[in-house]
Amino acid sequence: MNGLWWRCLSLCIFIGTSIGAPASEPSSDDNYWAQRSRFLIEESQVSLGGRMHFEYGERAANNILMAAKEEEVDEGFVDPSSFLPARNFLTVVDEVRGSSTFQIIEKMPKGAALHIHDTALTSADFVFENITFRDDLYVCRPADGSFQFRFRRVADKKVTCASSEGWELLADLRANSSIKDEVDTRIRQAMTMIVPDPAKAYPNVNVAWIAFQNIFITIEPMLTYLPVYEDYYYQGLYELYDDNVLYLELRSTLPTLYDLDGNQYGPIEVARLYKETTERFVKNHPDFIGTRLIYAPLRNANDRQMDDYLTTFAALRKEFPDFVIGFDLVGQEEKGEPLARFVDKLRAVSPSIRLFLHAGETNWNGLSTDENLIDAILLNATRIGHGYALLKHPRVLELAVEREVAIEVNPISNQVLTLVGDMRNHPASFLFARDYPVVLSADDPGLWGARGLSYDFYEAFVGIMSRSADIRALKQLALNSIKYSAMPDEEKVRAYEIWTEKWAKFITDMTYEYSIVSRSKRSCEVDFVPT
Fold it and tell me: Is 386 annotated as catalytic?
């Protein structure tokens, strides 16, 4: 009886309170729109670059940039099929190059590239037009349509070739006019993931990764010829420099190199090649800060292989303490071992060693792939590679912000490898909206027709960020890349100085070029007299 009485009393109190409480007063139109305006301002202020003030000349430059961006976004709003970031990058590479927004971004000093892999650093055009035309390059053409390449003095019959023709000198094939064009077309196709219909060719992440890995299998025996590897890397540095990037942190498996005398070169020799080639490049381009190396072997390893990795890493650190900066594991997360498998071994590494860990490059939730994010943050990773599944682990995100663990976002890679179809749906939109510690990079630009960072900056700026995100967001990304790099503090100071000078020139040049174009247009309008 007492229980029934209390339930009745509670109901009466609830009803009386609900009926007796005055309704909240509707705000006047003026109050509503003022509140809405403040709301938008507050959102803008907490976004990437939102706390920055425009410096000298930046507001005028921003007007030029935003006119181009807003025209592109607004046209896409009317006709979504025309919006390039909503389409697969593999099908719109050439159209992106024609974008006015992209052309401005190309000229912008972008700071540092902090997530790029060794044998996908350099453009496929260079590989095809330069490397495949070098002397002593042999090719094996199996019946399945694939290619195998290797430099050698003569066709080595000891090396298996699953083709009735055996190893053929590529120059001889090209000398045959009846097959030259077909051979060149097939070689180009074998070097990138570019296809007419990516959705059909790569229906899911596993198929995309198989195609992706097959490219490495095809090109690496050609690229790992010692003289080629050095030239390939130097060209990769030049393409970054030409794209207004001033520093690189390169992830490398440190593949075994070879020469025509049968010599092979292991991790120490390969790291030395990187270091010496970087020094030569910096000498020729003194406004390029340099490169550092992250040793990043394959994650599909057993315990013994992991021990070997860490032994190699220790030797690299001893030989190149200022050049080799950290450790990572690379490869498809669904197919490789989770970080949890190697936690004890990684925890045993000296606390002074930095980990730059691929984690959460997946669409899954509650599996070992996305839970790699938990291990990455608990292992005190310096940066997290991709972090695509980060929003599914809010505690990891909280700790990343608290500890300033930057997330290396690679938009085009995520799209090509089928994690996201339309850049407007990329989870980095939330990271940008809240100004979380983020850097942009390109992952494997040579494998999808890109070069440098401009293409990923374009996709992020136009497709992932808000329409209202402006030049300050781009500026913040560039500054973040220096801040979250592994450069020592004194080197960061120099990088900031070089970048600041280049940024000021970029702003001045943009406004000057626009004023020239505007005056030219007005002159044409005045001089034109209808007949």
Answer: yes
Known active-site residue 285: no
Beta strands in 146-244 (DSSP E): 148-151, 168-169
Tell whether the model's pLDDT for residue 231 goes beyond 90.
Answer: yes
pLDDT at 224 over 80: yes
Task: Using alpha carbons, select from 369, 447, 376 the residue that is nearest to residue 407.
Answer: 376
337 and 430 part of one domain = yes
User: Residue 178 sits in which domain range?
Assistant: 129-199
- Residue 462 reports pLDDT greater than 80: yes
User: Are 384 and 365 found together in one domain?
Assistant: yes
Same domain for 184 and 329, yes or no, is no
In the chain, the N- to C-terminal Cα span, in Å, equals 101
Phi, then psi, of 192 in degrees rounded to 5: -140, 170
**Which of 337, 361, 408, 459 is flagged as catalytic?**
361
Q: Are residues 369 and 479 in the same domain?
A: yes
* Structure confidence at residue 157 as a pLDDT band (50, 70, 90): low
pLDDT at 130 over 90: yes
Mean per-residue pLDDT of the chain: 92
Q: What is the pLDDT of residue 441?
A: 98
343 and 377 in a single domain? The answer is: yes
Q: Last residue of a domain, which of 199, 219, 244?
A: 199
Domain identity same for 149 and 216: no
Selection from 110, 180, 200 nearest residue 139 by Cα: 180
Spatial separation of the C-alpha atoms in residues 128 and 120, rounded to whole Å: 13
pLDDT surpasses 70 at 255: yes
Instruction: Judge if 252 and 380 occupy the same domain.
Output: yes
Choosing from 115, 117, 358, 386, the catalytic residue is 386
Strand 111-117 to 245-252 pairing: parallel
